[in-house]
Fold:
Amino acid sequence: ILNVEQSPQSLHVQEGDSTNFTCSFPSSNFYALHWYRWETAKSPEALFVMTLNGDEKKKGRISATLNTKEGYSYLYIKGSQPEDSATYLCAQRPYGQNFVFGPGTRLSVLP
Amino acid sequence: EAQVTQNPRYLITVTGKKLTVTCSQNMNHEYMSWYRQDPGLGLRQIYYSMNVEVTDKGDVPEGYKVSRKEKRNFPLILESPSPNQTSLYFCASRGSQGAYEQYFGPGTRLTVT
Structure:
């Protein structure tokens, strides 16, 4: 079973701060890396899918980068807002069908 | 509206009483999966299906069964539930080619006493 790790496990930031978290994964047999945003009592919602080394994706104040050679992806949030509070999940999809999820980073943005 | 639906959303049952959690998607997706979410652990895949009548085990299949008789439906069956199957369950679906995004259902919170 692949091991996808995320750090930190949780963090608290003040409104307006920028923050970032890490997803690390085995670099062999890489196919795609997914980021999801998961709010409490809701279902995970897709943020980004990245497939190529060096990929950078952006959606509003949230962006992500991918390094498949060293096996990591960063998610950045610029100017955090209370509505950004959620658990951010990454999932690697090796060549094949199965997604392997990390344990998530729980973000709390304090007003 | 494109969506994945699950029923029931909440279920409390007793050990050994067979139950089925239904999952349905209206996006004509080939791939469907079941996951469970437990505190401190990532979403873990239970079973997945690549198309009608094609299913395979994920990482934690013990104690579960699935079927895929129609493309839109992928029920999860617990023949004899046990307390260690108390969890939050998600169904998901996606298209067949490339790095297509995966869409999740709203989740089913199951408690087995």
User: Anything to note?
Assistant: Residues 16 and 67 of chain A are 27 Å apart (CA to CA). The first strand of chain A starts at residue 5 and ends at 7. Chain A has a mean pLDDT of 92. The radius of gyration of chain A is 13 Å.
